[in-house]
Amino acid sequence: MIFLVAGQANGEVLKLDEPLSFWGGVDPKTGEITDLRHPQGGMSVKGKVLMMPFGRGSSSGSSVIAEGIRSGSGPAGIIMMEADEIIALGSIIADEIYGKAMPILVVEKSEYESFSTGDRLVISEEGLSLS
Amino acid sequence: MTVNLSEFDQSCLDGQEGTAAASAMRIIVRLAETMKASELLDITSAHIDSCLYHGPAVLDFAKWLEDQGAKVKIPTTLNVSSLDLIHPNLYRGDEDWGAQARLLMDCYEGMGCKPTWTCAPYQLEERPKFGEQVAWAESNAIVFANSVLGARTHRYGDFIDICAAICGRAPAAGLHLDENRKGDILFRVGGLNDSLLNRDVFYPVLGHLVGKNAGNGIPVIEGLPDGVSEDRLKALGAAAASSGSVGMFHAVGSTPEASTVEEAFLGLDPTVVIDVTSEKIISARDQLSTVSTSKIGAVSLGTPHYSVQEIKKLFELFDGEFVDPEVNFYVSTGRDVLTEASLRGFVKPLENAGVIFVTDTCTYITPIMEAVTLPVMTDSAKWAYYAPGNLGVEVIFGAVEDCVASGVSGDLFIDNNLWLDG
Q: For A4-43, how does the pLDDT look when each residue is reduced to its tens digit (9 = 90+)?
């Protein structure tokens, strides 16, 4: 397990069936998934520990992530199986300018597969645990 | 993992190059750590996506840099913004939102970026050469720079673009390095009919299919005609970067690091081989439309920004016809391209025919289009992908020829023969 961006979070897991582009895919004001082609379209990422295999799509995803952290409508944390710089950047910048980072983790496939939607997860310096 | 810093990198971090360079370098190093870069490298240009307004955070960031006296160190171009400064009356959005968007644009110009306002910086006169290391954001520009120009940029997001421009440095990792530019997945299109391979509309559809199936690997496409045009490769890459995570592709016989399949894979075997059949292509095409009706309310072309060649083709397709009075017909392009196309005599006749040119921005990222209840037709897979979520419109994808025929009559026209031939 690697922290792309360190931080702590606690929330319900929303595990996405497919990668999501934050720009053009999430409303930064509400956290709703607006990409209606996405299997989880219409659901909300707000306050969730969001799991997706890897990142996708627009460079502006960084801005939507930073805006979600600022406004509080973004996820509580993001867990992936591959590093994604576009996602990491949004959280790094929120940390730099607001002192608010959202944890972003890369985990092994086995660990990724051990969690599912609805689980309550705690992300701490030690790693992931069910609450 | 620690990033080995050069003397210059360290002097930036220590504040000897100014406060802004210290902040920018700190962010670059943080990102370099996530990319497992062992060092940074020099870059020759940057393309900034951070200039599009998404809410207070992006302006807070730009002002934070501006307050520290940020200036770019290398030639830096700007992506689309939320406003059309050439045709300001086209903006139909909230006044306050527009004012914030304008402040953001001014901020980046103030840092020394060129007010190019285009998502297709590769259509500007100055563009990176083969092998040049650059830091570009904007997913379609990234894929074009890597694949078609043979320049090298990682898949950068907002914020790091301007940091890299301030320091002239970027992480030596990802698509900057030889070993990460080799193909992973082979798409074979040789079984498709030549008549389809020679149509513009085939390329965004292929891109959509490739993006969906490439995961986060680098796709290699074999079986296309040699020397596929830049406009077609642009449409392919933009589509693949929307439906997938593609930051680079190889088109054997067309892109500079793929004169052969072996070269594209650096002599290794593909992890997956996909035979692209006409059934798969038609299914990908159908995924791009959300509805099927007999009437359309608008047409939107130019995502990514239309080139002079594409405007010329549109001029030829109109051939003296006029847009139906019930249809709004938009074409997004860069201000530099619009100037060139005007000089060549394509713009005035198209405007007289009822075409609305949009510059500096795009119809799917800001409120420009008049409200329509009928679907919007487009020749862009990227627009077809994002517009329904962004604007709440229904979309119908078609060839530019079909878009013009439909825009002129107001009735949906799709030339299905074109696809059956495939």
A: 999 999 999 999 999 999 999 999 999 999 998 899 999 9
B251, B271, B286: which is the final residue of a domain?
B286
> In which domain, by residue range, is B396 found?
289-421
pTM: 0.95
| Helix locations, chain A, DSSP H | 61-71, 85-98, 109-113
**Do residues B327 and B401 share a domain?**
yes
**What is the domain-level CATH number for residue B387?**
3.30.499.10
pLDDT tens sequence across B336-348: 999 999 999 999 9
Residue range B172-231, pLDDT digits in tens: 999 999 999 999 999 999 999 999 999 999 999 999 999 999 988 999 999 999 999 999
Burial B18-48 (b: 16+ CB within 10 A, else e): eebbbbbbebbbbbbbbbebeebbebebbbb
One domain for residues B159 and B299: no
Contact indicator for B171, B31 with CB cutoff of 8 Å: yes
Burial of B87 (0-12, 13-18, 19+ CB in 10 A): middle
Query: What pLDDT, in 10s, does the model give residues B52-94?
Result: 999 999 999 999 999 999 999 999 999 999 999 999 999 999 9
For residues A11 and B155, give the distance between their C-alpha atoms in angstroms, rounded to a whole number.
Answer: 29
Q: Which residues from chain A sit within 8 angstroms of residue B57, using beta carbons? A: 63, 66-67, 69-71, 93-94, 97
Residue of B nearest to A37 (CA): B385
Q: If pLDDT is split at 50, 70 and 90, which confidence band does B142 have? A: very high
* Same domain, yes or no: B267 and B231: yes
Domains of chain A: 2-130 (3.50.30.10)
A58 part of the active site: yes
Q: Is residue B104 part of a domain?
A: yes
Indicate the residue of B34, B138, B388 with minimum beta-carbon distance to A88: B34
Mutating which of A30, A59, A80, A87 best tests the B interface, going by the most B Cβ atoms within 10 A?
A59
Tally the domains of chain B.
3
Nearest CA to CA, how far is A31 from chain B (Å)?
A: 13
